[in-house]
Fold this sequence. Notes:
The chain is of the alpha/beta class. It has two domains: 11-145, Glycogen Phosphorylase B (Rossmann fold); 162-347, Glycogen Phosphorylase B (Rossmann fold, 3-Layer(aba) Sandwich), CATH 3.40.50. 34% of the residues lie in helices and 14% in strands. The chain has helices at residues 20-24, 27-36, 71-82, 96-103, 117-124, 135-141, 162-174, 198-212, 225-233, 252-259, 271-278, 329-332, 336-347, and strands at residues 11-15, 41-47, 62-66, 88-91, 109-112, 182-186, 215-218, 244-245, 264-268, 283-286, 302-305. A six-stranded parallel β-sheet has the order 8-7-6-9-10-11, with helices on both faces. Strands 3-2-1-4-5 form a five-stranded parallel β-sheet, sandwiched between helices. It is globular, with a radius of gyration of 21 Å.
Amino acid sequence: MLSPKIKNPARILVLRYSSLGDVILTNPVLDRLKAAYPKAEIIYATKKYLAPMVQYHPAVSGLVTLNGGGLLNFFKHVSSIWALKPDVVVDLHDSLRTRIIRLGLGQARVTVYDKEGRYRRLIVKKLQTKPSLHTVRKYLKALEVLGIPFAPSVKCQVHVSKEGQKFADEYAIRQKIGKKMVIGLGPGATWQTKQWLPEYYAQLASRWVKQYKAEILWFGNDKEVELITTIQSRMTVPVSQRGVCVAGQLTLEQSTALLGKCDYFLGSDSGLIHLASARGVPVTVIYGSTTTSLGFEPWGKHQVAEVKGLDCRPCDVHGKKECPLGHFKCMKDLTPDKVEDQMKHLMGKKP
């Protein structure tokens, strides 16, 4: 139920520390807070490496970043937050870390989002059939305590700095990217059961290059460079046409800006797919061990590529190191043809 709106808070603190996709999906909350309290100072607390996901949002007045691990760094971080003395705290994480932070914030009005953790585990156990609420809606629902109603037309957008946009523009010129259709690929994922087969990526990427003259950009972190190199080695086109791998080469801010140069993006159920979506790119997300029922699909224009009718899906809330049943049908049966068909729904026609 919508509560009465809080009057004129001077400072609002937003808490979310991980992971990439979760932080990205908090951006609509910043839009709604700014619309409701245009004069309030909005401070965002997160891990340092994730700061680019929110720091250029026009609603954000400042950041308090957690720099590294260890108790000493954490207590320094907590002290910095307590010194802010916010009037309102929006906890979009609800972890042990954020609970400790909330203890020292005195009379601040606190609202905490409901992650529906138990409910999602029941979905995995096939004891619930109704989908979990989308994460963006869960975040926005937490604002109802502050008297801020849900806005169905809210967007999820990650902003970049002028320097970041300049880098992307110059990079595209140097690499001669953008004269043809640009397709971004993000084959990596933290959990193995979220990764589509490398040979399938190689087949589909080769097809796009041969038939449609597409330019390929490979995205990921430094741990995924080997995976991308393996995929490229299996492509059946000349080396010069296997695309540019920016994984491990760019900062998160630079990658964010460069994603905006893509016409379409294909990737795993991971933070990168949310980042592409939040840069306004139509995305096709590949689901293996997870499903949309867990409430974490991209907020923007997207298509879902998955094998339907497998009773074992989802097998985990986040993903697993290997298929619990050993057959891995959720990925093996998801052929390149099926994935391309889903991408064509976004394109409206063949590339």
